[in-house]
Amino acid sequence: MNSPRTGMNRVVRCSCALAGVLLLGACAISPDPISDGQHLARAQAERQKLYEAVPAIDGPLTLEEAIARALRFNYDHRLALLEQTLQNSQLTLANFNMLPRLAANAGYTVRDVETASSSVSILTRRQSLEPSVSQDESRWTGDITFTWNLLDFGLSYFQAKQQADRALIAVERRRRVVNNMIREVRSAYWRAATAERLLPQIEPVINEAEKALEASREIERDGLQAPVETLEYQRTILQVVSQLRRLRSDLSVAKSQLASLVNIPPGTSFAIAAAGLERMPVPQPPTAPLAELELYGLTLRPELREEVYQERVDRQNVYREILRMVPGVSLFAGPNYDSNSYLVNNQWNEAGFRVTWNLIGLLQGPKAVEVAESQGAVTAARRLALSIAVITQINISYQQFLQAREAYRTAQAISDVEAKITSLTRGGNDAQAVPELERIRRSTSAIAAELERDRALSELQGAVSNIYVAIGMDPLPAGAQSDDYHILREQVRASLVRMESGMLPALPQPEPPASEKAAEPTMPLSTGIPMSQILPAPVT
User: Fold this and answer.
1) pTM of the complete model
2) Can you tell me the distance from the alpha carbon of 94 to that of 90, in angstroms, rounded to the nearest whole number?
3) Which of 175, 245, 399, 459 has its CA 20 to 30 A from that of 96?
C-alpha cells in the first residue's frame, strides 16, 4: 500500500513535468498567418451571407419599400441595433454587480511530511512541549462565504447608473443612423427615379445632336452659311451635349447607390415606381418658423441628447471618486468544513465584518474629484459648441432648401418653355419654317431642360430631408423595430404621409433642470400623433 509521502512525490513529479511541457510550448509559439485560400473561402461565405434572407422585389420599388428595406436589411442599421442590444446587456450585468458575493470553495491538500510543531518557554527559552501533530498529511476543505462590501456596492451602483445612461446614448446613436440613412435613401431614390425615366432618352438625343454637329461642320466646310452663325450653332450644340453627358454620368450610378443602401444584390434588375409618374411630387418643408426649427433641433438632435447623457455619466464619475475616499466595510458569513481528524469540530459557521481604508487614496482623492469635475465641464462646453453647430446647420439647410426650391422653379419654367418650343417645331406650319438643324438643337435643349428639372427636384427632395435631419425629427416612431418587413413597410408609409404634410409635433412643456425623469412627455401634438411615436423610447 502506498504511503501519503509516496503519493505526494508522484504528484510533485507530475506537476513539474506538466509545467515543463507548458513552458516549452509557450516558448515555441510562432505567427500563424491565414492563408489566401482561407481568405478566399471566408470571402465567398460572407458574400453569400450578405444577401441571404433578403426578399426579392416583387414589383416596382416604392419609396416606403426602399426605406423599409434599408431599415430591415442595411448592415449599418443592424450594427447600430446590435450596439444598442450590447449596451442593454451590459446594463443587466452592471445591475448584477450590485449583488452580494456568494463564493463556494473546495480543495484537497497533501504534504510529504507531517506538520509537527513544538513550543518554547518565553521565560527560560526551553522546550516546554515535545513535537506534536495537529493536522493530517492530507485533508479536504470547503466553505461557502456570503460577502457584501458596502464600498463595492456604492461604486457598482454609480457604475450601473452610468451604464443606464450609456444604453440611452446607444438609442440616440441609433436614431442618428436611422435619420441619416433615410435621408440618403430618399435622395438616392429620387435620383434613381430620374435616371430610370430619362436615361433611355439621353442616348438618342446625344446621337442626334452629334449628327447635327457633323452636319453643321459639313456646312461650314462648304461655306453654305455665315461662319460666325455656324460656329455659334456648333458651340450651342456642344454645350448641350456636354450638359447631357454630365447628367448621364451623374444619373448612371444612382441606381447602384440605391441598391447598396437597401441591400439589393449587385446586378439585380429592378424598376423604380416613381419613374412612371408623369410629374414627380414636390416636397413640402416643415411648416414652422426658423426660430422654432432651431428650438426643435436643440431639443431633438441625437448628438445633443447624447451629450446630455454623457454629462450625467461624468457626474456619476464625481460621485464615484468621492466614494472611493470612504472606508470600505465588508460583511461576511458562511459555513466551513475541514476533514482534519485532529479537529474537535470539523464543521462550523463563521460571521464577522472587516473595515478597510486606503489612506493613500485620501491623498489622490481630491485630485481625482477635480479631474472628474473637469471632464464634466469639458462635456458641457462641448455640448454648447455642438448647439451652435446645430443652429448653424439648421439655418444652412433651410437656406439651401430655399435655393433648391428657387432652382427647381426656374428649371421647371425653362423645361415648360423648351417643351412648348419643341412641340411647335415638330408639327404645324411653324415646323416647316424651322431648319432641320435648328429643330435638332431645340429638341436637344428640351431634353436637357427636362433632365435639369428632375435633377433640381431630386436636390429639392434632399434639401427637405436635410432640414428634418438637422432638427432631429425622427421619420419613424420609436417603436418601429418590428422584425416583420411588411409591418415595417406600413409604418414607413404612414410616417412618409406625415412628413409630406410638413406638420411638426408640438414640443413638450419644459421641466425643471433638476428633474431627470425617464418618462416620456404625453402632451398631445398638433398632428394628433402621440409624442411617444416621435421621440425615442427610454431604455429600461
Assistant:
1) 0.78
2) 6
3) 175
